[in-house]
Amino acid sequence: MIQGEAWYMVRELLREGLSVSEIARRSGYDRKTIRKIRDAAGHPSPQERRKRGSKLDPYKPYLSQRATAGVLNGVKLLTEVRLQGYPGGITLVREFLHPLRPAVPMVTERFETLPGQQAQVDWSACGRTWHRDRLRSLSTFSMTLGYSRRQYVEFTVSQDMETFLRCHINAFGYFRGIPTEILYDNLKTAVDHRGPAGQVVWNRRFRDFADYYGFSPRACQPYRAQTKGKVENGIRYVKGNFLLGLDVAQMTLEELNREALRWLRETADVRVHGTTHERPIDRWPAEAAALGSLDGRRDYDTSYVCHRLVSREGYISYRGSRYSVPPEHAGRPLLVKEGADGKLRVYSGHHQVIEHPLAEKPGSVITTSDHAEAVRTLARARGRNGARPDGHRLPRSTLRRPSWPEVQVRPLTVYDEALGLVTVGA
Length: 426
Hints:
This protein has 14 helices and 14 strands. It has 426 residues and is an alpha+beta fold. Helix 5 crosses helix 6.
């Protein structure tokens, strides 16, 4: 007996008055089948599939008995039932044992720290924003103190090493102190890799930064992200409170960070924390007294550093813009530093030769008022005697005009004779 859509189709054709033979011709079913559908009192009930027996069926009573006695090791029970003649594998045994195992609750012990002992750091993606005429991916750097739960938040358009270290410095300044240790989730800017025994090998620049400020870096065990739950909860709070309903794409990075600092003071610090049941600002005095002192030390140098070759016109190229340098350095590679203060500094050895404001957009030319005249003066001086103002003469090969090979001049008839166009002596 057919079922489903075919059954309803045949019944519909019968209601239209078609003959059994015509319906059989259209549907392709036998006429006997069409008559059975016509004479049926109602829709046939679905036929139940006959369940096939399992290889494990004869051994299930024994397995149940052993499970009741507390033996739930699948490998051990497989060995026992195979001695009794079981021909199958361990999969059927494990599937049978699974519902018999007692449920194990997922319990995580909360780790509380003393004042000033630990901070936790992490990044999080937070959409996109406009920065220097470009739509950039927006990230949130968050540092949360373990005891008070006060947090520092900073929005950036990069997660590179220089930005990472700079955010740390800003957080230390915001808290006016340094925790004893800081916990990380295997960030590449912190953890370079792990050794064969699982030991952490820190990024060398980050290790130097930690030694400079005197804190101990700690890394979570892989796949144990709950270890740094304090900072993760803090990031969720930022997204669910501060960023909720905020159109970050319409704000500059500076505006966003100003609003974030105001939100930290007026909202985050004064709410009752869900775990401590106290306001972070009320627990802050004990934390502040235990933080390590900054001791008035200079900020760690987080500049972007590279080398650039000075062109013959006395310019270097950096991030798509050109910056002037004293023309006596033309043709030399110089050290370039982009500082956190938005300044570009150029060095020859340990001597700073010039400083410029960083260009606001690519394609800019940043120069000094006297640069063009200095280039002309130096060019004229070199043109006269081939010497630089510092007294050093240029190599003679650069002063001598290029010498071209002499070309012998012959009359055109010589070429005609060579080609046989003119008879010699004619």
